[in-house]
Amino acid sequence: MKNKTRILIDPGHPAKDNPGAIHAGVHEADINLQVAIRLGDLLNAAGFAVRYTRQGSKMVELEDRVQIEHLSEPDLFFSLHCNSFSSPGVQGLEVFTSIGDTLADPAASCVIDALQICFPESNFRSDLSDGDADKEAEFYVLNNTRCPAILVEMGFLSNA
Ligand SMILES: [Zn+2]
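Above: query sequence and zinc ion SMILES. Below: predicted holo structure tokens.
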């Protein structure tokens, strides 16, 4: 029997005392979790083995998320976040990988293609300077996980 591809979904932010971006009473940590559960259901139904770094509002720090990744040895680490900005007109989606050419790049390109098909009206905030559409950043979970890791900023809570 073929082993299932394992995806570790990471709903951003520890939740309780650090909810991430907040706008109009909406907490980023809550949206990240709700999308994570729906994404996990879809991936499960499509035959992937899914785990989460958190499934409730219990605090989970960045170091613990990386530790879960080390212990569960997934094939892909998939972090979900929402943005916020002082100017409400700023909007759009972003997909991040760590810096340089990594195994996360093809995964990010795949997710970007899917997002552009599913949300054609969305502003896609890409960085094409290095030959692909993902952005690169030194986010803790991207830098310290061992498997290919991507982080999706699903949109700006500050944009209506
Ligand atoms: Zn965030």
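The chain has one domain: 6-156.
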